[in-house]
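Technical annex, item 7. During the second reporting period the consortium partners agreed on a shared format for inverse folding records so that results from different sites could be compared directly. Each record opens with the tokenized structure and is followed by the designed sequence. A conforming record, contributed by the partner at site C, is shown below for reference.
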């Protein structure tokens, strides 16, 4: 290594002052470009990794909701393709809610139940959401502990 260094020093000494300055400037520019390229690569890779982590976090945050929706759809099976009225009645019966279901002129469904279990109503709303049925209007009135009167207007989402 010292022999190579000595040869380089001799070669540099044999150059004119102008050529030595050009070699020094060139070496300095090359070193600057190398450092800049290294830093940029690290920064870009780091930014990319942060974006990937953020995407994974969003997916993980949605996982419980997606799992719940999947379980609800699996429980309903092939029933999701039923007409709206039949689908609502099927979901209500799965949650032991005795309700009247009326088809309205605007293709929505009016649902009325008396003294229904509040927990069953909430589970029913989750199942309705899982099959893209939205609540247009709703009124829940507490009757006794854990029981509510329900009056809702439902429709297929996108209708």
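Designed sequence (site C submission):
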């Amino acid at each position: 290594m010292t022999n190579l260094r000595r040869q380089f020093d001799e070669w540099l000494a044999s150059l004119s002052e102008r050529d030595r300055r050009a070699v020094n400037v060139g070496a300095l520019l090359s070193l600057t470009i190398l450092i800049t390229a290294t830093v940029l690569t690290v920064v870009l890779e780091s930014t990319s990794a942060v974006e990937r982590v953020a995407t994974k976090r969003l997916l993980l945050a949605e996982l419980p909701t997606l799992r719940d929706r999947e379980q609800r759809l699996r429980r309903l099976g092939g029933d999701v393709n039923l007409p709206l009225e039949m689908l609502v009645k099927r979901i209500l019966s799965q949650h032991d809610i005795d309700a009247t279901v009326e088809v309205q002129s605007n293709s929505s469904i009016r649902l009325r139940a008396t003294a229904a279990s509040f927990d069953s109503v909430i589970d029913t709303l989750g199942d309705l959401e899982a099959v893209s049925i939205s609540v247009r209007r709703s009124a829940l009135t507490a009757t006794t502990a854990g029981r509510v009167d329900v009056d809702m207007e439902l429709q297929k989402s996108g209708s």
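The CA atoms of residues 40 and 65 lie 39 Å apart. The beta strands are 99-103, 109-117, 133-142, 147-156. All partners now use this format for quarterly exchanges.
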